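Encode chain A's predicted structure.
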Amino acid sequence: MKEFELIQNIFQTSVMASIQGREDILLGIGDDCAQVQVPSGQSLVFSMDTLVEGRHFPHDADPVDIGYRAVATCVSDLAAMGAKPAFFTLALTLPHSDPQWLAGLAEGMAELAEPIGLILVGGDTTKGPLTISLQVHGYVETKQTPLRANAQVGDDIYVTGCLGDASAALDIINGEAKVSSQRFDYFYEHFWRPAPRLIAGMALKRVVHAMMDISDGLAQDIQHILSASKVGAVLQAEQIPISAELRQWRPDEALELALTGGDDYELCFTAPASQATEIALITQTLGLPCCKIGQITDSGFRIQGYEGEIAGWQHF
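Encoded structure for chain A:
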């Protein structure tokens, strides 16, 4: 297939490219640019993410899995801003034209994009090493954006979900660990099907001070909040949420994986102690596990009960 045939036959016809019923999207795929109207009283937030074959996923990975994960990892940034997903653009660098592979990629993308209202409005294709780049856009009330720079001394620190499962899954994904089918399914799902905490982010933004998603490891990522807010933090190792599955499979490494492993895409946020009841109400209503793991301090950073290296995923 040639470039325009790819766009028209695979992506433009996908359910995730339909702008029917979307008053904010004036023009979708088909022109030199998409055209949107940002709703009154809201701001447009956007983020870009790139996945490279051999670096972020193995060469023999299922294209449906790749497509879903590509959308999920990027959309997680919208969740961290408390934003409602709106639309995205897609840039594909392909070694060759493979309609069947591309149809699988589009299927995986639509599996997540369509139900959350994320519309594909444009992009680009070119020849080269397999690379997938997405730029996602969302809307958020201007005065309710939970910036990384808003953490305050005395804030409690929380994380949603459990940490470390996706990082532990890498050995399974890469074929370096042999496990039971049940364990394989559990960890495979946590790597390829991360759950962006969109609803939680939109609900929590009115009660938190700072928020971000965990993509490169909690111990590393939280320091972005500390640096932006010019504060410190103390975490309690025994309060870090770790799944029973990870503790059973890799008990000696579970805490290290939870602190330094990447690809969790959970939310880390800070909030005043006075909001503890409201946070519990929100997360319990959503059925979302949420743990208080530490506190914001004047300066410094330490993890009580952990003696290992404080590091995370390195892109270079």
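The chain has two domains: 3-143, 148-304.
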